[in-house]
C-alpha cells in the first residue's frame, strides 16, 4: 500500500495546535512500582484532581474520586416534561494494559471522565443508555453534548446582550429516547492515564478501544444498567472507534457484567450509531494512492449548492445523485485501467497520455468539469497547463477545496461555506465554543466544580496515534487503519445488532459515497442503512437542513425492537426516505 506524503495525518482527524494543562498533576513518586490490587484510599473531593494531557503524563490513583457530582434536573422535550439526574465524574478503567510482555494485567488503567443524563423515573430494563464519543482522535465529548444531543443549549444572541450565557432546553436532545453518557477518551476533557501508565499508552486504535470498553463495563456495573438496552454513538473518528469497542463488548458477552441485582438477564449491546464516520482509511484518496471516486458525488453536491441548482423547484435529488454515483463507477474503472499510474509516488503518464488522444477522453474530462465546476471544457491536444484534470484526474478533497473558487477556499467540513480571510480551516483548528463553556456549565448543571481546565481538543494525540492493530484480537481481516473487519464481526457475531450510519452531502472530510462504497465492498449494504442529509460533517442541529428528518430517523432507530431490516427501517419513514 502506497501512502501520500501526508501519511496518516488525515484531514478527518483533529489537528488542534496545542495541548497541556494549567498546572501539573500530582505525579507518582520515583520509587512507585505497579500495584497488583487497587489500594484502599480516602476518596478525594470530586473535581479536586488536576489533570495533564501530554503523552508522558499520568496521575496518581489516590487523587481521583469515583464519586460523581449530581443534580436533579427537569426540561421539556416535545412538550413533555422530562425529569432526570445530571451527573459528572470519573470511573477508573481496569485491566486493559498488559504488564510488559506478560499475561498479567494492571488493575488500574486510566481515569475516564464522563457526563451522564439519566431518567431515574423509568424502569431501567427498558430504558436505553447511549455512550457518546467524539472524533479526532483527540476530541472531547462536550461538543456533542451542549446544543447537540444533550439536554441544554444556549441562545448566542441573547447571551451576547446579557453578557452571560442564557441556557435553555435543547429541543433536539434525544434524552426522551435514551439516557446519555458523554465520554472523554484519555488525554481529552478531564481524562488521564493512571500511573504507572502514560497517556500515550492509550493513543492507538486498540488500546483506545480497550480502555473505553472497560469504562463502559464499569459504568454499567456501577449503575446497575446490566439489563438496559445499550447503544454506542460516535462522530467522525468516533465512528471508527465504535465498531472496535463493540467488537470487544460483544466478544466478552454477558461475562463482562456483574449479575443484575434485579436478576434480569444482561443485554450486551443493542446498537451502533455512526455519524460522519471514516471506516477505512485505506480507501481514502486524501491519504492513500487510491481512486477518488468515493468523493465525486460530494463534489457534485457542492457544485450544485453553489450554482443554486439544489434550490430549483425541478431539482431531482435522487436522479442527480444516481447519475453522480454511476459516473463514480465509470471514474473508478478508468482509474484502474488508464490513470492509476499517474497518481503514484513515482508517476507514469504513458497510458494516460495515450488515452488523452482518444475521442472518449473529451467525454470523460468534460463530465469531470461539469460535475465539479473545476477547469474547463477539454479539446483533444490541450496540455496540462490549461486544465487541472489533465495533470491528474484523481483530485482529492484538499485539492478540490483550493481549486473550486479562485478567490476563496472551501471548508473541508462543509463545502457550502468558504473560509473567512486569514482563518484556519476548522478541520485543522478544531476549536469549539462549547469547550469554553463546559466547565461553568458542569458546575451549575451537575455541581461538578473542576480545578483543571477542560481540554476539548488535544493536538498532540494525532502525532502519537498508533494504527497498528492488536494481532491477538480474534477479528479476521486486515485491520490496519480499517474498522470494517470489526464492523463485519459485530453484525455477524450479534445478528440482532442494529447499526445506523449518518452522513452529510456536503462533507468533504468524510464523504458519504466513500462509506457507501466501503459498506458495499464489505457486503453489508443489505444489513446497514446509510442515511444522508443536506448537511456537512458531524450531522447536527443548526448545520443540517431539515434536522427534523434526522430526529425522526433516530427515533425510528431506537424504536426498532430487534435487528434493523433495511427495508423495514425505510418503510417506517416513507416521507424521509433517502434517494
TrEMBL record:
Example of a GO MF term: carboxypeptidase activity
Taxonomy, superkingdom: Bacteria
The UniProt record lists the keyword Lyase: no
Pfam short name (any one): Peptidase_S10
Statement: the UniProt record of this protein carries the keyword Cytoplasm: no
UniProt keyword annotations, A-Z: Carboxypeptidase, Glycoprotein, Hydrolase, Protease, Signal
Region (Disordered): 23-44
Gene3D superfamilies the record matches: alpha/beta hydrolase
Protein name in the entry: Carboxypeptidase C (Cathepsin A)
Organism: Phyllobacterium ifriqiyense
Amino acid at each position: 500500500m502506497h501512502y501520500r506524503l501526508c501519511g496518516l495525518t488525515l484531514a478527518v482527524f483533529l489537528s488542534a495546535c496545542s495541548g497541556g494543562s494549567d498546572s501539573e498533576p500530582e505525579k507518582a513518586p520515583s520509587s512507585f512500582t505497579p500495584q497488583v490490587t487497587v489500594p484502599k484510599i480516602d476518596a478525594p473531593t470530586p473535581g479536586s484532581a488536576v489533570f495533564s494531557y501530554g503523552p508522558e503524563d499520568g496521575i496518581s490513583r489516590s487523587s481521583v474520586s469515583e464519586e460523581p457530582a449530581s443534580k436533579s434536573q427537569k426540561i421539556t422535550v416535545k412538550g413533555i416534561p422530562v425529569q432526570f439526574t445530571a451527573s459528572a465524574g470519573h470511573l477508573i478503567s481496569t485491566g486493559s494494559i498488559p504488564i510488559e510482555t506478560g499475561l498479567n494485567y494492571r488493575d488500574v488503567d486510566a481515569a475516564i471522565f464522563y457526563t451522564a443524563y439519566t431518567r431515574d423515573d423509568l424502569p431501567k430494563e427498558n430504558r436505553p443508555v447511549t455512550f457518546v464519543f467524539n472524533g479526532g482522535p483527540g476530541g472531547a465529548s462536550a461538543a456533542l453534548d451542549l446544543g447537540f444531543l444533550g439536554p441544554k443549549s444556549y441562545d448566542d444572541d441573547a447571551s451576547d446582550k446579557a453578557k452571560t450565557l442564557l441556557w435553555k432546553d435543547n429541543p433536539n436532545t434525544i434524552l426522551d429516547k435514551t439516557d446519555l453518557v458523554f465520554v472523554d477518551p484519555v488525554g481529552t476533557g478531564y481524562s488521564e492515564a493512571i500511573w504507572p501508565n502514560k497517556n500515550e499508552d492509550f493513543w492507538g486504535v486498540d488500546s483506545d478501544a480497550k480502555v473505553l470498553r472497560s469504562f463502559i463495563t464499569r459504568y454499567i456495573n456501577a449503575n446497575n444498567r446490566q439489563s438496559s438496552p445499550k447503544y454506542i454513538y460516535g462522530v467522525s473518528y468516533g465512528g471508527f472507534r465504535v465498531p472496535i469497542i463493540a467488537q470487544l463488548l460483544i466478544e466478552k458477552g454477558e461475562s463482562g457484567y456483574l449479575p443484575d441485582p434485579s436478576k434480569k438477564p444482561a443485554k450486551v449491546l443493542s446498537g451502533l450509531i455512526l455519524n460522519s464516520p471514516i471506516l477505512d482509511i485505506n480507501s481514502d484518496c486524501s491519504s492513500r494512492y487510491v481512486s477518488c471516486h468515493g468523493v465525486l458525488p460530494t463534489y457534485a453536491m457542492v457544485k450544485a449548492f453553489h450554482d443554486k441548482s439544489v434550490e430549483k423547484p425541478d431539482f431531482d435529488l435522487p436522479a442527480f445523485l444516481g447519475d453522480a454515483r454511476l459516473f463514480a463507477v465509470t471514474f473508478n474503472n478508468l482509474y484502474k485501467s488508464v490513470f492509476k499510474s499517474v497518481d503514484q509516488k513515482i508517476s507514469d503518464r504513458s497510458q494516460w497520455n495515450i488515452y488523452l488522444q482518444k475521442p472518449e477522453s473529451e467525454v470523460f474530462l468534460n463530465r469531470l468539469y461539469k460535475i465539479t465546476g473545476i477547469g474547463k471544457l477539454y479539446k483533444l491536444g490541450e496540455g496540462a497547463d490549461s486544465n487541472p484534470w489533465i495533470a491528474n484526474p484523481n483530485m482529492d478533497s484538499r485539492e478540490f477545496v483550493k481549486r473550486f473558487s479562485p478567490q476563496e477556499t472551501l471548508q473541508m467540513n462543509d463545502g457550502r461555506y468558504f473560509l473567512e480571510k486569514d482563518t484556519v480551516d476548522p478541520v485543522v483548528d478544531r476549536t469549539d465554543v462549547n469547550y469554553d463553556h463546559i466547565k461553568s456549565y458542569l458546575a451549575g448543571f451537575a455541581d461538578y466544580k473542576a480545578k483543571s481546565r477542560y481540554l476539548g481538543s488535544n493536538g498532540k494525540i494525532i502525532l502519537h496515534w498508533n494504527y497498528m492493530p492488536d494481532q491477538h484480537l480474534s477479528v479476521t481481516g486486515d485491520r490496519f487503519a480499517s474498522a470494517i473487519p470489526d464492523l463485519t464481526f459485530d453484525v455477524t457475531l450479534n445478528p440482532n445488532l442494529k447499526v445506523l450510519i449518518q452522513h452529510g452531502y456536503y462533507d468533504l472530510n468524510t464523504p458519504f459515497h466513500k462509506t457507501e462504497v466501503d459498506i458495499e465492498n464489505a457486503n453489508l449494504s443489505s444489513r446497514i442503512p446509510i442515511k444522508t442529509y443536506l448537511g456537512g460533517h458531524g450531522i447536527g442541529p443548526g448545520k443540517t437542513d431539515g434536522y427534523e428528518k434526522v430526529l425522526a430517523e433516530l427515533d425510528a432507530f431506537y424504536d426498532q425492537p430487534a435487528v434493523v431490516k433495511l427495508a423495514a427501517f425505510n418503510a417506517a419513514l416513507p416521507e424521509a426516505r433517502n434517494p
